[in-house]
Please model this.
Amino acid sequence: MVSSELGLIPKGWNIRSIKDISDVTIGGDWGKEYFEEGLIPVICLRGTDLQALKESGYANSAPIRWIKESSLVKRQINECNILIGGSGIGPIGRSVYCDPSIKELYNIPIIYSNFCKRLETKRVQDAVYIESILERMYTAGDLKGFMGGTSVPNLDITSLTAHKIIVPPDHLLDEFVAMKKKYFLRKFSNENIKLASLRDTLLPKLMSGEIRVPCEEDAEKSKEAVNE
Model:
């Protein structure tokens, strides 16, 4: 361990601000609710959809909006992107790394709304790592110090990106990202969609008594009937 402005850090690690390795990109687009000539359909992620993606691996309430193709070119997510809930609907500060597997969840392109902020890095490794730092900060409640506003809270993205973090050497970063990529592949998979659909189909029937889960007593009766 060696001394630094952030206290003791592992030897070989560096201190950098988030803005040193990422850029805040163009704001989101809310588009139109219905089709108009010259517009194309997209999934438009809001803060509340980032929360759903983080928790269950799928956001089934993410709205379809209609935007210009030129807007899609500027705002379509890629694997060097991080989305952060910035204001409005949904948890402020909730972040999601834009792993390519998220695109497989929907059959149309994905952009983000003007309620979200987007960070972009030059390397995939940096995007994965920064998002993991943001997630830890959110869970610990540290992101509350970067929020302002009264009636409608807003994320102070300028102050947040000035925040300094410790960054591991590339060989450790590569190992970390390799593990996270396996996690993302499982997290953002169609299996979660199928399980959610099965849950939504079976739960009402279980609650209404239309179907029931066999208990131990039912199993014993079944054995007795077979023996007879």
